[in-house]
């Protein structure tokens, strides 16, 4: 029950009765308008068919109808003249009261321009715990709006009373509502307005989304655990590579740093940035199958030795393909030595056949390799590395990726 105001009790009762009489009169006027509209409805077969379809709602979901401010008197006049536009508006108005309130599982609440409740359906009773007798005539602020929203709601109704508009009319939004017992819960609300006898009324369709929010939280936690598992798996692979060849491990970390910078500069999504970081950290994992004496050989490699090294992309793919990554990490590793003119390996892919992540790693791999010391040669320096990708832009390497890499080094002073 709601608290009565302080003061003379008989005066309060008299005032309360007067208020109820006024509200009952307004409600009766609304009902009379609806009865008139129902009579007019019989003129149009299309209206009947549309109403019948609505009264048989789908079991799994209900479509919420959000109405723009409407003037009933104008619609009646247009209906009499036979306007098709009026028929469409008529169908919306008919749905908006008792009929829609009785069939939808969502709370359907109508309030006047002062915020007093004038319609409260069965679903609202179930959702909020207040009967119609308890809710009707009381203010929205008292029944379902938490205290922290009161100021904003009052300001909104001040605008709404004059124009039937406020920032949330005609929109669907999520917020925290409050049921009997001051228990707060998340809801989704679609708010519309309607004008009756020069007075604005708000119509809200409210859905409890507690289960949806709980499901979303479970999914977020599940994804976080999955990412932790992926990170742990990658870290374990990186350690294995380091045990086999510390140079390759360091090379992969530096390539990963540059690929992430390029990906962000290209405005790739967070998911894509995460993917390319992981792929770059293990892109040379296939080299674990190559004898260490070949990887660290100080002399020029023989053709057969170089052919063996060229197998590392395929070997890396074969190692990772059975790991259940949430992304195509193994495919990126397979492609990171492909070139856009088809001269790369192992499949000789061209242009758009190559994943963007593989194109980025290809550029970062060349830049890091040329600018760093190798067991069989000294570092050639960053200038020569940037010259290599610049000269072969659009030939071997993707133009956008090359331009972004050059920008990072020349303008943003990127360092490994």
Structure description:
The protein is α+β, with helices and mostly antiparallel strands. It has 2 domains: 200 residues, 2-Layer Sandwich (Beta-Lactamase); 198 residues, Orthogonal Bundle (Hypothetical protein af1432). Helices cover 56% and strands 10% of the residues. The chain has 18 helices and 5 strands. A 5-stranded antiparallel sheet has the order 2-1-5-4-3. A hairpin with a 3-residue loop joins strand 3 and strand 4. Helix 10 packs across helix 16 and helix 10 crosses helix 18. The longest helix is centred in the middle third of the chain and has 35 residues. It starts with 8 loop residues before the first helix and ends in a 6-residue tail after the last helix. The N terminus is likely disordered.
- The CATH superfamily of the largest domain appears as PAS domain
User: How many DSSP H or I helices?
Assistant: 18
What's the pLDDT, averaged over the residues?
81
- The sequence of SSEs as H and E is HHHHEEHHHHEEEHHHHHHHHHH
Largest beta-sheet characterization: 5 strands, antiparallel
CATH topology of the largest domain: Beta-Lactamase
Helical content (DSSP H or I, runs of 4+): 55-70%
**Regarding CATH, which class of the largest domain?**
Alpha Beta
Low-confidence stretches: 1-18, 40-87
Which structural category fits the helices and strands? Answer: alpha+beta
CATH hierarchy: architecture of the largest domain: 2-Layer Sandwich
Based on Cα principal axes, name the global outline: elongated
- Our estimate of the beta-strand percent is 5-15%
Tally of extended strands? Answer: 5
């Amino acid at each position: 029950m709601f608290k009565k105001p302080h003061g003379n009790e008989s005066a309060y009762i008299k005032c309360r009765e007067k208020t109820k009489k006024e509200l009952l009169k307004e409600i009766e006027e609304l009902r009379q308008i609806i009865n008139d509209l129902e009579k007019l409805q019989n003129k149009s077969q299309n209206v009947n068919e549309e109403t019948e379809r609505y009264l048989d709602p789908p079991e799994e979901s209900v479509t919420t109808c959000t109405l723009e401010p409407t003037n009933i008197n104008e619609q009646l006049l247009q209906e009499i003249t036979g306007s098709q536009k009026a028929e469409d508006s008529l169908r919306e108005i008919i749905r908006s009261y008792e009929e829609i309130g009785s069939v939808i599982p969502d709370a359907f609440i109508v309030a006047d321009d002062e915020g007093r409740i004038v319609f409260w359906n069965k679903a609202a009773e179930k959702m909020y715990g207040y009967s119609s007798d308890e809710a009707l005539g009381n203010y929205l602020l008292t029944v379902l709006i938490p205290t922290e929203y009161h100021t904003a709601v009052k300001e909104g109704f001040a605008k709404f009373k004059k124009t039937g508009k406020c920032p949330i009319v005609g929109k669907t939004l999520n917020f925290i509502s409050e049921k009997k017992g001051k228990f707060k819960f998340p809801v989704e609300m679609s708010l519309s307005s309607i004008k009756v006898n020069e007075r604005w009324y708000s119509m809200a369709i409210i859905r409890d989304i507690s289960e949806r929010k709980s499901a979303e939280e479970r999914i977020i936690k599940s994804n976080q655990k999955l990412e932790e598992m992926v990170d742990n798996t990658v870290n374990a692979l990186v350690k294995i590579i380091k045990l086999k060849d510390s140079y390759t491990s360091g090379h992969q970390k530096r390539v990963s740093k540059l690929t992430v910078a390029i990906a962000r500069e290209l405005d790739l999504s967070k998911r894509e940035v995460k993917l390319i970081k992981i792929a770059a950290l293990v892109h040379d994992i296939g080299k674990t199958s190559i004898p260490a004496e070949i990887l660290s050989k100080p002399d020029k490699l023989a053709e057969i030795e170089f052919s063996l090294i060229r197998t590392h992309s395929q070997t890396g793919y074969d190692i990772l393909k059975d790991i259940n990554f949430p992304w195509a990490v193994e495919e990126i590793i397979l492609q990171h030595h492909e070139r856009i003119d088809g001269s790369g390996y192992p499949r000789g892919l061209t242009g758009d056949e190559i994943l963007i992540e593989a194109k980025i790693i290809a550029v970062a791999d060349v830049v890091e390799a040329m600018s760093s010391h190798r067991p069989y040669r000294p570092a050639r320096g960053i200038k020569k590395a940037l010259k290599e990708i610049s000269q072969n832009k659009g030939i071997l390497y993707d133009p956008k990726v090359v331009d972004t890499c050059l920008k990072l080094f020349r303008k943003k002073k990127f360092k490994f």
